[in-house]
Design a protein that fits this description.
GO terms for molecular function: DNA-binding transcription factor activity; sequence-specific DNA binding. This protein is of the alpha+beta class and 278 residues long. It is built from eleven helices and nine strands.
Length: 278
């Protein structure tokens, strides 16, 4: 399936109906998939959920009305489907950090959330994804289900993949893959909850969390771009260092429905870090 046209059709539908109640069933029809699958693909490609995209576009359009017209604020609020002046003002302040009245009074020029425009060249899109961006996340101490150590092809990792793939696809991935030199193999983790039926061949462990640098790459391809980006980030930091007491992790962030469309998957690489002198 070519996902460029469906994404553009959804964006056009939202823009055309920005002052109306957006029909999610219609969005699913335009995309040609269930609304759940559409949500996953849209969030991956656009970088935000459909609901959040609609909210930001409504507020950006409302901002232009506040700035350039004499319409009453309460009428602008109603125009963009807000139930009250106060609800609109709260949402406006949360997004722009100033009130509608301040914008109108001081003629403030603010940064808008522009309509999404998909680049027609998939290769350009891939290069934009692999830009070496580094972010910091924290995984809390938690319980995880752990696979048997193994190598791909020996059946152990495949058994673990088959087990957790039966669960409903989460909004965010819950599985993390690592290579453990002490066990001389890959180990797969999955965030545990008490309702799980865990096979005897897997273990439930206490997972030591902490801070991680994270950067993205294409799964199955060279990881030099994300790992170089994280190494360079640490080299320039005066407050953070590599934490060799924990293992590096990886997880695939692209939903399966989007993998089929794109022909590749994004892998997030996690490098454990800690504060200097910690």
């Amino acid at each position: 399936m070519d996902f460029i046209k469906p994404i553009n059709d959804v964006v056009l539908y939202i823009e055309t109906n920005i002052t109306q109640e957006i029909d999610y069933e219609e969005i699913g029809k335009l995309f040609g998939r269930s609304i759940s699958e559409t949500q996953h693909v849209f969030a991956f490609v656009v970088g935000t959920t459909i609901g959040d995209y609609i909210r930001k576009r409504k507020l950006s359009k409302a901002y232009l009305d506040v700035l350039s017209t004499d319409e009453k604020i309460i009428d602008i609020a109603a125009k963009y489907q807000y139930d009250s002046h106060s609800a609109f003002s709260r949402a406006f302040v949360q997004h722009f950090l100033v009130s509608p009245m301040e914008v109108r009074r001081d003629k403030m020029v603010l940064k808008l959330y522009e309509p999404f425009r998909f680049n027609q060249d998939n290769n350009i899109y891939r290069r934009q994804v692999l830009d070496g961006t580094v972010r910091i996340v924290e995984i809390p101490n938690c319980k995880m289900v752990m696979s048997e150590p193994g190598m791909f092809g020996d059946g152990k990792l495949e058994a673990f993949d088959d087990w957790f793939s039966r669960f409903p696809e989460p909004t965010f991935p819950k599985d993390f893959l690592t290579y453990d030199p002490k066990k001389q193999g890959f180990v797969w983790f999955y965030i545990y909850d008490e309702e799980m039926n865990v096979p005897d061949s897997f273990k439930v462990i206490d997972f030591k969390g902490g801070l991680y640098l994270v950067s993205s790459g294409i799964d199955g391809e060279d990881d030099i771009i994300p790992k170089t980006a994280m190494t360079d980030f640490l080299a320039q930091s005066k407050e953070l260092i590599y934490d060799d007491s924990r293992l590096q992790l990886g997880n695939v962030t692209t939903p399966k429905s989007a993998q089929e469309i794109l022909g590749y998957s994004l892998m997030d690489y996690y490098m454990p870090i800690k504060k200097v002198n910690q």
